[in-house]
Each structure stands twice: as structure tokens, then as C-alpha cells.
Amino acid sequence: MQPQRSGPFPYVPINRRPRITWPNGARLALWVIPNVETFPLNEPVPGGNRPGARRHQLGAARLR
């Protein structure tokens, strides 16, 4: 599998996804959402692997 900008699954806008129906006609569901950050896998990361590292170094230098 080759890396793609949006991962291994094609992007589908929420208004084009199929309607979800819950068992017994329920109108409420509990949705646990973990924080997942995404980034393009096929593009270089600006500033290297740790883009905020230089900013932290500069901030620490000011505290000395």
C-alpha cells in the first residue's frame, strides 16, 4: 500500500455518507471520539520531524 494524503480510505463528505439507523429505532447513541491528528504521509513535514522543536529551544534560551 502506498501512502496517500488522506490515508488508506477514500474521503467521503459527511453529507454523502449513508444514513445510519440504530437498533430498535433508537434516536440517541454514545459516540466515544479519541483525538486523532492526521497529516499527509506522502509529503515532507515542514521543519523536519519536530517542527516545534526550534520554537521550544528559542523559548528556553530566553528563560536563561
Write the layout of secondary structure elements.
Elements: H1 53-63
Word description of this protein:
The chain is mainly alpha-helical and 64 residues long. It contains one helix and no strands. The longest helix is centred in the C-terminal third of the chain and has 11 residues, at 53-63.
By DSSP (H or I, 4+ residues per run), the number of helices equals 1
Could you tell me how far the N terminus lies from the C terminus, measured between alpha carbons in angstroms? 48 Å
Q: Roughly what is the average pLDDT, rounded to an integer?
A: 77
Global morphology: elongated
Task: Tell me the total number of β-strands.
Answer: 0
Pairing-aware structural class of the strands and helices? mainly alpha
Secondary structure: helix percent? 10-25%
Brief overview:
The protein has one helix and no strands. It has one helix spanning 53-63.
What attributes characterize this protein structure?
mainly alpha; elongated; 64 residues; 1 helix
